[in-house]
Amino acid sequence: MENDPGYIYSQYRPPVMDKTFGKHKVSYNGCGPIAIYNAILASGKSVTFDDVISECERHVHLGGLFGMTDGNIKKVLKRFGCKFFCGHGKKKVESLLEKGKVFIVHMNNGFWIFKGRHFVTFTKSCDGTVSVYNGVKKDRTTDYPSFDAFCKSYIKHDHGSIVRLYSIE
């Protein structure tokens, strides 16, 4: 996928890494606001990251200690006028993937409740290629030939490690 400089490709790089979000810096717990920002851009709407961070600050989890929850992601998406569908479980995820092009995935990439939870945005092209934003410490998307390849390579587990998938319209 052609990389647009408006997207945020890594929470670990300037200019966003040192912005405050909750009780920490974006580099520590800012994956939720970055996923929301990138999904809004990918859906064709205009927004600034500062506006997203400001709205997300109103919905931080445990006073900003751990970033955002699924419920808070929904509130912020609604606030920015995004229509979305979400769910979990293999059949629901497959159904959402068939119909959508812009997604936020909340995944469990670890084995402790607060370790390894991460939100990323990804887009799906007509040929099924998945382009992931804020997946790794790079200045571009990471592309996978399919959602299953993304799950096996990045999440390192199957669909069961997906906490929730959002399809953004």
Structure description:
β1 and β2 form a beta hairpin. The protein starts with 19 loop residues before the first strand and ends with a strand. It has six helices and eight strands, in the order ββααααβαββββαβ. The strands form two sheets. Strands 3-8-4-5-6-7 form a six-stranded antiparallel beta sheet, with helices on both faces. The protein is of the alpha+beta class and 169 residues long.
Secondary-structure topology with pairs:
Layout: E1 20-21, E2 24-25, H1 26-29, H2 31-42, H3 49-57, H4 70-79, E3 84-87, H5 90-99, E4 102-112, E5 115-124, E6 130-133, E7 142-144, H6 147-155, E8 162-168
Antiparallel strand pairs: 1-2, 3-8, 4-5, 4-8, 5-6, 6-7
Helix pairs in contact: 2-3
Q: What is the N-to-C succession of helices and strands?
A: EEHHHHEHEEEEHE
Query: How many β-strands, per DSSP?
Result: 8
Tell me, briefly, the overall form: globular
Proportion of residues in β-strands: 25-35%
Structural class: alpha+beta
Provide the spatial order of strands within the biggest beta sheet: 3-8-4-5-6-7
Number of helices: 6
Brief digest:
With 169 residues, the protein is an alpha+beta fold.
Give short descriptive properties of this protein.
169 residues; alpha+beta; two-stranded antiparallel ribbon; globular
